[in-house]
Amino acid sequence: MNLLHKTSAIPFYKIHSGFVAFKNRIREVLGATSEINLDDVMNDDDLYSFYRNGESADFVAAAIGGSVD
């Protein structure tokens, strides 16, 4: 009996790297449009819910307080 389940790191990597790219894009937009620090106003759990819902990084940045042109 094999107690370890076969899991793949690829799906986790894709989710993780996509989320990191999403978070970095929000930081870029906020840095360009305002002085808001993302880590001060949102935690990863809240950001991850936006990411899972398919919201754009520009939309999230605008919702946080940055204006998007």
User: Per DSSP, what share of the residues sits in E-state strands of 2 or more residues?
Assistant: under 5%
Q: Summarize the amount of helix as a percent range.
A: 55-70%
Largest sheet: none
| Unreliable runs | none
Shape: globular
Residue-averaged pLDDT, rounded? 79
What's the order of the H and E elements?
HHHH
Q: What is the structural class? A: mainly alpha
Distance between the termini: 58 Å
Number of DSSP E strands: 0
Q: Given the structure, what is the number of helices? A: 4
What is Rg? 15 Å
Write the layout of secondary structure elements.
Elements: H1 9-33, H2 38-41, H3 44-52, H4 57-64
Helix pairs in contact: 1-4
Keywords:
single chain, 69 residues, mainly alpha, 0% strand
Please tell me about this protein's structure.
This protein has 69 residues and is mainly α. Helix content is 67%, strand content 0%. α1 (9-33) crosses α4. It is globular, with a radius of gyration of 15 Å. The mean pLDDT is 79.
